Amino acid sequence: MSRPVLVRREQALRGGQPLSFAIGLVVALTIGIVLLLGAGHDPVAIYERMFVAALGDPDSWSVTLNRAVPLGLAGLAVAVAGSMGLWNIGAEGQILAGAMMAAGVARIGEGWPGPVLVTAILVGGVVGGSLWALGPAVARSQIGVNEILTTLMLNEVALRLVQWLIHGPWKDPDSFNFPLAPMIPDHGRLPTLFGRAHVGVIVALVVIALFAVAVNRTAWGFELRVAGSSGATARYAGISLERKTATVLVMAGGVAGLAGGIELAGTADRLTEGISNGFGYAGIIVAALALMRPSGVAAVAVLFGAVQIGGQSIQTMGVSSSVSTILQALILFGAIGAGVLSRYQVRMVPGDPGDPGGDGVQVGEAT
Amino acid sequence: MSDIWKRFPGVVANAGANLSVSRGSIHAVLGENGAGKSTLMNVLAGVYRPDEGEVRVEGVAHRFRTPADALAAGIGMVHQEFRLVPSFTVAENVVLGAAARILRRQAIEDEVADLAEQFGLATRPDRPVWQLSMGERQRVEILKALWRDAHILILDEPTAVLTPAEADELGVVLRAMADAGRSVIFISHKLHEVTGFCDEATVLRGGRTVAASVRVADTDAGELASLMVGSSPMTTERPPAHPAGPPLLEVSGLSALGDRGLPALQSVDLTVRSGEIVGIAGVAGNGQRELCQVVAGLRSATAGTVHLAGDDLTGASPRKLFQAGLGYIPEDRLGVGLAPRLSVVDNSILRTYEAHRRGPFIVAERAEAHCVDLVERFGVRTGPLDDPMAGLSGGNLQRLLVGRELSGRPRVVVAAQPTRGLDVQGVKAIQDLLVEARDEGAAVLLVSEDLDELLTLADRLVVMHDGEIVGEFDPTTAARSEIGEAMIGHGAGVGS
């Protein structure tokens, strides 16, 4: 009897990540053909529609890019913390907090000139997200409270807060009793670039690039990466973990909050319950696919955005939203699975499948 | 077990080890860290498969592929880290995986209680494990093995987690088991326990058996100690002595707590002068590690002072100490001294990255030049310098680490187990670097478990036991047996 085990490659395959994404895509689309045929659809037409809707012309590109903005910033919010070995699961709540603060700014600054108001809204987003991450940051750095739990739980709190605002104090009197906040003033909206793409695309790209450079090229980023490797090594290198942990989590919150501000002023135009639409959680996947490297986040976010936009578009062709969601999931599974194979290889070893011993687990040290 | 070989990448853990245990005896397996004890036991317990060699149980040859195979042949192992489910009761843990499909709580509790009584293991079968002391948890592990009808019971350093009173109790339990016809293999490096309650002893060194089944009654702790640390002729020529200069590292009255919050270092006084290597000998876990950590700023002292070249730097940060001229080669290379996932370049500037800054940026060219310099000067064999550090072999990892610490010509060097686990070439290279640093006037504090290394390199040798310095020796004249005695706490003070 022999059985397969995963063995870590000594080195990840070079260029493995883009390649694995492509392989994953092909595998997923192949499985998807079966799925679509089973549901009585023409796979070729469906796939064509997905592609055209996401990447077919400048207009579709503009929609995809707009979608990539919150995904990329949320991914960055996870990846920056992840570079230091911290898990920021709270991007969702930080986006909502950013959107709330931005909406508050928009209410106050109705009379301000356009450029001032737009800038203030985006800054409001950053501040809101940072404040939302402040609690977990302080708790983690001062008394070691696990940031995974605190950031995750605050997501729910943020959502409830948004609901309270739009059902209560900020409810639009003209919304026919729907729970919606009023539209932000027109001159507070993000200027468009082309098609429907707004300035947020450039803002996000600049922010991601800044963080990528900071993490890879600066002393600050060096400390971050050392701390991510091992806390003991960081102390040995003379790095103060407490301060670093706190600032990094707050910064991550600010990045996610910026996404909230951009969504408000760029696509949603008003505070709604669904303004984040799961971007914060999707950001975890984006960061994982980018191997927690801020530099990889932008490309992954565009691909992820294209998959989402393409998936949504086929719902108008009578494909049920479940099938569309399954297709999106397959593509992501394929990419993640192929990513694993770029870092691990499958080896057959002798032994029964249920057997816990064997060479596959013999990776311990020798004494 | 005869002629067991087990190789791991870059390390030969067992090189023809033998072990023969007779029924109804308590058999000690002795050896220093890295002597191959745990590997040999893991081979016996079916965790590792030997590359070569034979395992016979009651005359029958076995090839165990899994721990379950070994258990079926009657071999059970109690590991150093307990493998218990904290929220389960004692009885549930004992029968876990080896009980009938339907558990009748009261019945198994009674059965476990009977078994415990039979061997005098005081326990409370209905208690959840998380409520138990370490000693009680260990008894649960022993019960697990007995429940599975193990006739040969391996205990891997069982007393490491026990209080002295608990250790004595364990001795009584083991005797009861031996009297009942079972065999106990007792791994330890605490010699007084071996002489206290073992019948026979096998000593391993460098993966080989150097003394097989010695009757404990016919020997004494001193002899066993010298077998453990070896008496092979010196492999390296003793480097010429160097006249010692002014004191650069002065430690006085230093006390500190260990990881478990118990005193690990008690009022240690130590001076290392410019141009000398002071070696610290001792059995692992007697405060050497804590001493190095306090001096390097990674552990706080509860009392006492550390002076570097006359300046009081007690409690200073690791960075401040480094800048004041302290090079530190930590025992845990990959967990403390290096960042394995970062690149070779990043690792080479781990201590000095601030010096490679321009504004907020680290100047890549400068960092790389520094790395290339280290790699060339210290003969590190590497792939591309942007690849992760973890890709380097053990010897090359250590060359880079040692090179990095020595390249700034530190006034004081603290080296903890700097050659452990390296191959012959690597050992020689690191030793030469330490001697070179000394010859350039550094004060070197060298902690090692390899007594040969200490005798070869050190200009003075102090022995630590139980967190205290218990003896000082002149390595050129001291007898190994005397040092061995001191290491186990039987020393007669200053022996030089």
Task: Give a verbal description of the structure.
The complex is a heterodimer of chains A (367) and B (496). Chain A is mainly alpha-helical and 367 residues long. Chain A has helices at residues 16-38, 43-56, 58-83, 91-108, 114-143, 147-167, 200-217, 219-229, 231-236, 241-268, 279-289, 294-313, 321-343; strands at residues 2-8, 192-194, 197-198, 344-350. Chain A has a domain at 64-297. Chain A has 13 helices and four strands. In chain A, strands 1-4 form a two-stranded antiparallel ribbon. The relative contact order of chain A is 0.23. With 496 residues, chain B is α/β, with parallel strands linked by helices. In chain B, the strands form five sheets. Chain B has a six-stranded mixed β-sheet, with helices on both faces. In chain B, strands 16-19-20-13-21-22 form a six-stranded mixed β-sheet, sandwiched between helices. Chain B has a four-stranded antiparallel β-sheet with strand order 2-1-4-5, with helices on one face. In chain B, strand 7, helix 6 (164-179) and strand 8 form a beta-alpha-beta unit. In chain B, helix 8 (221-229) crosses helix 17 and helix 14 packs parallel to helix 15. The radius of gyration of chain B is 25 Å and the shape is globular. Residues 492-496 of chain B have low confidence and may be disordered. At the A-B interface, helix 8 and helix 9 of A face helix 1, helix 10, helix 11 and strand 18 of B.
Topology (elements, then pairings):
The complex is a heterodimer of chains A (367) and B (496).
Chain A: E1 2-8, H1 16-38, H2 43-56, H3 58-83, H4 91-108, H5 114-143, H6 147-167, E2 192-194, E3 197-198, H7 200-217, H8 219-229, H9 231-236, H10 241-268, H11 279-289, H12 294-313, H13 321-343, E4 344-350
Chain B: E1 2-8, E2 11-17, E3 26-30, H1 37-44, E4 52-57, E5 60-62, H2 67-72, E6 75-78, H3 90-95, H4 105-118, H5 134-147, E7 152-156, H6 164-179, E8 183-188, H7 191-197, E9 200-205, E10 208-215, H8 221-229, E11 247-257, E12 263-273, E13 277-281, H9 288-296, E14 301-308, E15 311-312, H10 318-323, E16 326-329, H11 333-337, H12 344-348, E17 357-358, E18 361-362, H13 364-377, H14 394-407, E19 412-416, H15 424-439, E20 443-447, H16 451-457, E21 460-465, E22 468-473, H17 480-487
Parallel strand pairs in B: 3-8, 3-9, 6-7, 7-8, 13-20, 13-21, 16-19, 19-20
Antiparallel strand pairs in B: 1-2, 1-4, 4-5, 9-10, 11-12, 11-14, 14-15, 17-18, 21-22
Helix pairs in contact in B: 8-17, 14-15
